[in-house]
Hints:
This protein has helices at 3-35, 38-70, 75-106, 118-143, 147-170, 176-193, 195-201, 211-253, 255-266, 270-291, 295-332, 340-365, 369-394, 396-433. By secondary structure, it is an all-alpha fold.
Amino acid sequence: MSFSKKFLSSSLLSVIDQGMLSALNLLVGALLIRMVDKNDYGLYGQLYAGGLLAGLVVDSWIAGPLTTVASAVHENTRKLLLRRYWFRQIFCTLLMGGLAFLIVEFVPAATQHANKSWLLGSVFGLYVIGNGLREYGRTVGFIQSDIQSVLRQDFVYVLAVITGLAALMFYQHIDLISVFSVLMGSSLLCALFGRERLIARTNTDSKEMDPGDLEVIVGHQDTITGHGRWAVLGVVVGWLSNYSYVYLSGAWLGLSAIADLNASRLLLMPIPLAVAAWSRVARPEAGRLIASQNWSRLNKLTLFSIAGIELVVLAYVGFLILTLPLLETYVIGSKYHGLDPLIMLWGIYFAVNAVRWIGTSWLMSGGAFRSMFFLGTVTLILVVGITSFSIPYWGSAGAIFALIFVEIFETVVVWKFIFPRLQKPLESVSVNVS
């Protein structure tokens, strides 16, 4: 199969997979919008953002750098790296789950001083652990180009969540604790389901490797660790840039404002999830192209990716505009009437974000984690400063205005300055060697 057909086939399967997860996320959000009050949904938005940060930290410490290195090494070396980092993933996930519990329970600002029980913090911590264990199986599948196993694993997860939610609706017991319990239990079940497949995909005998091979493994581990330090710092400042609006809006406008922002964003969540699906397939391929300095093919992949993703964004936003009256009636409900301007602003934000994310994915594939950290730091300063000014004047819309401005700035910097600089050292090395 040619590169284009293989990449397109893998991308299609990944989009189908992420489409299931996107539909599930929409279902969970819509259910909470309809069944709980706005303050509880606002609290859910904060917890969900916190859980996302926990997952991103583990991913950036392990999966991101591992994808960069493992995509360009021999198969036996790759399997051994994947097996060793599986155990590190478990340790880091347990650590993040415990930290999540402590923050929810003992840092009132993290939940806007909302009334909550210790059980919510416990369930949320277990949810972080379950999600982290499930994600590593997906990471291995994408690195090994085994998209079918990822699809099967996520199908089990989606089926388990839907079954759990159906049971909650049957017994009329919908609240944050029960919903996070369903998500947590489904993630753990899914991780257990994919365990045998994960063992098979990482099975190798280290005794058959000579000392030279083991030295290569140690070198790769040092590279992953070095990338991971900068990647963690970068992802934290990146998360703060993208989700500080949740906490700043809550501080100025309350949990109800967070609910409005998240309800309007929820309808557009298929866009970033589709972009994430594309990046999981594209990043290993981009890593191989960058390692081989095949810039012409990488440019073709870039143009193909930008055109495809932007077409999806435009088509989806157009569909959303046409069906918005029905969505207000049957999905978001009367409590969230009048969100049209926020939905349009989120559409603009995600259109710009998609182009920027392609460039960011290439930088991760090229190991430019340090540059991403410094860019993220500047971006964080900008978004906090602009949001602090715009929210008091324009309310919830001001938060999205700030995010759009910062995304445009970051897109220009990534494509105009950082990515061209990533190519130059490699090109100069090639000239010197020849």
